């Protein structure tokens, strides 16, 4: 009888404890989940004006980039990776939205702004609970209405272009409107650093600021290498996110190697046998590479490297010194190279838009993967959407990018969507193997990029049917751009 009462007592106790035991079991199961079961952290790194040849892994004869080379070795290298624009702002718009910059009237540097109706990468991932941060160059609108800043900030006529990252989904910001010197970013460098306004005096304020929020200027730790200044803000953001057990999106847009180019003595000294311009140019990229290594090492030490997707690229091809701009050759502090590709920044020939491209995701992307399919900065957005299980159809607008995952998994070798470009009077279309290049008031050329990457042999006269097909594809795409420009993407609520 006593035994029966004891059993009943135990039974009743278990009934009472059942909810608590269930919660404990769930907690144990969650704690035992592998990092792969969580949404991955996402880091997008972009250099500024870094040429396709300006990395060790692409065979630069002098420049050392051991950390970028390690990323390339341990992840996927895109041999035909493209910036959506041949200048800064348009490419950045493509990264942020997955759409061609022409759709939002960002036609050039300091042209237009990121519109309120656009859905940014930060806004998309916040649907999944991400913490978001933007660090470095913004260049998608002004950051202040009240203070004279950079090219457009604080000027009444540019109030319409006020479009800071904190109004577009970013929780944490440390950003400049546009360029800064690559050493002591707030201080005017010597004129021979290039791209320094004649009205500015060496040693005085450069005329731009780092902004952390509405009316909030950064005033501390703004000396020395600018890439380090930026990374000093990125690292705490990542550490805090990991401590809070919150997936994060970190966009890091370095100013290097955009003019004005200056390197510290530590970074110049390994290149002492080269010209002064080369010492500075190679030095700033080495300094940036050092910060990339600092970042990847931090991810490892925090135990999140295997659950972090990292992309690296540049916003366009290498700059040319204003002294020889028409000659399109390295000169002065503008020492970027294209490794034989035709054209440079501002050109839609390959040298102006083909840029370094790396994707690193240990365990998800096989080390040493080579992707030869043409891919583009607009592809980041749909790729991340796919990773997070977000259907872009719900946003009811045109997207120009496509999911990159099948390429690094080896399941796909040809693009479904061609790459379309327009800049000024230039336009181009790349459809896997072939490229059409034209000028609105001039001739149209056709190139076989697989067999003629330097675009030396025009096939337009011998392949007229192919040229006509590509032109039809381009015109169809242009029609969708016109719909976007007229507000057609914004007519329906999301």
Please explain how this structure is put together.
With 494 residues, the protein is of the alpha/beta class. The protein has two domains: 37-408, Alkaline Phosphatase, subunit A (3-Layer(aba) Sandwich), CATH 3.40.720; 419-490, Arylsulfatase, C-terminal domain. The protein is 29% helix and 15% strand. It has eleven helices and 16 strands. It has helices at 2-31, 66-74, 88-97, 121-126, 226-243, 265-268, 276-301, 350-353, 380-387, 405-408, 464-485, and strands at 41-47, 76-78, 81-82, 131-137, 172-176, 211-213, 216-217, 248-253, 308-314, 357-360, 369-371, 375-376, 419-423, 426-431, 434-439, 444-448. An eight-stranded mixed beta sheet has the order 5-4-8-1-9-10-2-11. A hairpin with a 4-residue loop joins strand 15 and strand 16 (444-448). Helix 5 packs parallel to helix 7 (276-301). The chain starts with a helix and ends in a 9-residue tail after the last helix.
């Amino acid at each position: 009888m006593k035994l029966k009462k004891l059993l009943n007592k135990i039974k009743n106790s278990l009934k009472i404890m059942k909810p608590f035991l269930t919660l404990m079991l769930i907690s144990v199961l969650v704690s035992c989940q592998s990092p792969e079961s969580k949404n991955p952290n996402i880091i997008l790194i972009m250099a500024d004006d870094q040429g396709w040849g300006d990395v060790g892994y692409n065979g630069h004869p002098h420049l050392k980039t051991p950390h970028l080379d390690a990323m390339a070795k341990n992840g996927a290298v895109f041999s035909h990776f493209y910036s959506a624009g041949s200048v800064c702002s348009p490419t950045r718009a493509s990264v942020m939205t997955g759409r061609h910059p022409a759709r939002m009237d960002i036609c050039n540097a300091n042209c237009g702004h990121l519109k309120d109706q656009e859905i940014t990468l930060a806004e998309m991932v916040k649907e999944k609970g991400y913490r978001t941060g933007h660090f470095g160059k913004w260049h998608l609108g002004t950051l202040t209405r009240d203070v004279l800043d950079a090219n457009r900030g604080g000027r009444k006529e540019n109030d319409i272009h006020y479009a800071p990252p904190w109004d577009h989904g970013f929780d944490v910001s440390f950003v400049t409107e546009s360029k800064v010197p690559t050493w002591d970013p707030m201080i005017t460098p010597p004129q021979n650093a290039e791209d320094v306004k004649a009205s500015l005096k060496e040693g005085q304020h450069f005329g731009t600021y780092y902004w952390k929020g509405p009316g909030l200027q950064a005033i501390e730790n703004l000396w020395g290498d600018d890439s380090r200044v930026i990374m000093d803000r990125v690292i705490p953001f990542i550490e805090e996110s990991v401590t809070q057990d919150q997936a994060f999106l970190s966009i890091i847009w370095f100013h290097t190697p955009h003019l004005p180019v200056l390197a510290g003595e530590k970074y110049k000294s390994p290149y002492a046998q080269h010209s002064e311009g080369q010492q500075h140019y190679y030095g700033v990229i080495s300094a940036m590479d050092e910060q990339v290594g600092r970042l990847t090492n931090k991810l490892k030490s925090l135990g999140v490297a295997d659950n972090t997707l990292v992309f690296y690229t540049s916003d366009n091809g290498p700059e040319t010194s204003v002294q020889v701009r028409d000659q399109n050759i390295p000169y002065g502090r503008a020492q970027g190279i294209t490794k034989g590709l035709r054209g440079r920044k501002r050109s839609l020939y390959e040298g102006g838009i083909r840029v370094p491209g790396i994707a690193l995701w240990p365990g998800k992307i096989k080390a040493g993967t080579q992707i030869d399919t043409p891919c583009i900065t607009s592809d980041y957005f749909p790729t991340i959407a796919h990773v997070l299980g977000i259907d872009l159809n719900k946003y009811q607008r045109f997207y120009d990018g496509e999911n990159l995952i099948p390429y690094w998994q080896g399941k796909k070798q040809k693009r479904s969507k061609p790459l379309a470009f327009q800049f000024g009077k230039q336009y181009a279309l790349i459809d896997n193997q072939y490229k059409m290049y034209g000028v609105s008031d001039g001739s149209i050329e056709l190139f076989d990029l697989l067999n003629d990457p330097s675009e030396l042999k025009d096939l337009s006269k011998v392949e007229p049917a192919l040229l006509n097909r590509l032109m039809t594809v381009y015109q169809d795409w242009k029609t969708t751009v016109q719909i976007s420009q007229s507000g057609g993407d914004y007519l329906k609520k999301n």
